[in-house]
């Protein structure tokens, strides 16, 4: 026993010494800094076949630790699109090392602030990393006004960055986002990738759309904000993966009652208003059971769970093919296959 204690004590001293050298000394700090710099500069490998889906934001506007607002990225070897860009999502895209210099465009489902707030940051990231030409922003009628407003607000920023880094390095015209309007029902073709916009029901918000991606025999539907509709049922019936807006009524009602009891009348009012224009978890469960969708993943969580108890409430009644997402989660769908790999 004494020998064991001695070994443990010596090991602790050695580890403590190594920790001190690595963290508290200049050579140790430089070694770790070089390792970190290599990781920071690395880009995500997107050369694999099939569709890959990255959750860059899984929360709604209600503040939630560790979760950005609504954002999903869809990648193929030849394509890269971001669906919505809520606050904090551009940071997640950067931390994941996704190649925003080759971003084909941002697709907006609607124009609530928690779906568009990080457009300027994402645009600057693309511009600074060498994106060829202006970043395209797709959306239903109204996208022109949103993009024009941001472009106007960022006019001085473009001047500063181009003058600082050089006009040839950051051409100011490349920093001006380009709006691309499509109808609420539309089909967009990008080589082997087909993106279908279809009408969502986020009433009274209009327009609102969802998007379906089809590529090499695989399919993904991303709803944005909506309730469950017959149109959504049709679009997901043969889909591989559904990422859907979801509201937990038990959690929202409990917080609402707490707000009423605590004199926070405005919060209680808002929590009452939001209940009829998001998909309730029980409706998402029913949709999953009664359509042919292979996997359903909940994002834009209302409210974003802050602990395991809230996560478990969200997952009440989940089927085996349902997932509660978090920021940084990947879904990989190899071409011409039935496999869906979930990578935490």
Automatic annotation (TrEMBL):
CDD domains xref list: arylsulfatase_AtsA-like_MBL-fold (cd07719)
Gene3D superfamilies given in the database record: Ribonuclease Z/Hydroxyacylglutathione hydrolase-like
Pfam family, one: Lactamase_B_2
EC number, UniProt record: 3.1.26.11
Lineage top rank: taxon: Bacteria
InterPro entries, A to Z: AtsA-like_MBL-fold, Metallo-B-lactamas, RibonucZ/Hydroxyglut_hydro
One of the record's GO molecular function terms: 3'-tRNA processing endoribonuclease activity
Domain (Metallo-beta-lactamase) ranges: 68-274
Entry keywords, A to Z: Hydrolase
Keyword Hydrolase recorded: yes
Full protein name: Metal-dependent hydrolase of the beta-lactamase superfamily III
Naturally occurring in which organism (per UniProt): Congregibacter litoralis KT71
């Amino acid at each position: 026993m004494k020998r064991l204690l001695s070994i443990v004590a010596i090991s602790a001293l050695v580890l403590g010494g190594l920790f001190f050298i690595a963290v508290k000394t200049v050579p140790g700090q430089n070694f770790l800094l070089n390792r970190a710099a290599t990781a920071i500069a690395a880009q995500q490998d997107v050369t694999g076949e099939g569709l890959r889906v990255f959750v860059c934001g899984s929360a709604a506007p209600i503040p939630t630790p560790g979760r950005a607002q609504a954002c999903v990225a869809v990648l193929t070897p030849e394509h890269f699109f971001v669906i919505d860009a809520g606050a904090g999502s551009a940071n997640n895209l950067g931390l994941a090392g996704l190649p925003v210099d080759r971003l084909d465009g941002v697709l907006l489902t609607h124009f609530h602030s928690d779906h568009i707030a990080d457009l300027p940051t994402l645009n600057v990231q693309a511009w600074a990393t060498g994106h060829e030409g202006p970043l395209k922003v797709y959306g239903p009628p109204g996208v022109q006004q949103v993009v024009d407003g941001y472009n106007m607000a960022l006019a001085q920023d473009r001047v500063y960055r181009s003058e600082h880094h050089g006009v040839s390095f950051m051409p100011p015209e490349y920093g001006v986002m380009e709006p691309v309007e499509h109808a609420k029902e539309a089909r967009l073709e990008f080589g082997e990738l087909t993106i279908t916009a279809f009408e969502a029901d986020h009433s009274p918000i209009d327009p609102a759309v969802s998007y379906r991606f089809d590529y090499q025999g695989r399919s993904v539907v991303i709803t944005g904000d909506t309730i469950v509709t017959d149109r959504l049922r049709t679009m997901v019936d043969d889909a591989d993966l559904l990422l859907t807006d979801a509201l937990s009524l038990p959690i929202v009602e409990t917080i609402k009652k707490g707000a009423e009891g605590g004199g926070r009348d405005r919060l209680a009012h808002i929590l009452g208003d939001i209940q009829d224009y998001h998909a309730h978890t029980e409706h998402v469960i029913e949709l999953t059971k009664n359509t042919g969708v292979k996997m359903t993943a909940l994002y834009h969580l209302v409210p974003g769970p802050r602990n395991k108890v809230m996560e478990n409430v969200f997952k009440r009644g989940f089927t085996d093919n349902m997932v509660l997402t978090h920021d940084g989660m990947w879904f990989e769908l190899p071409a011409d296959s039935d496999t869906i790999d979930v990578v935490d």
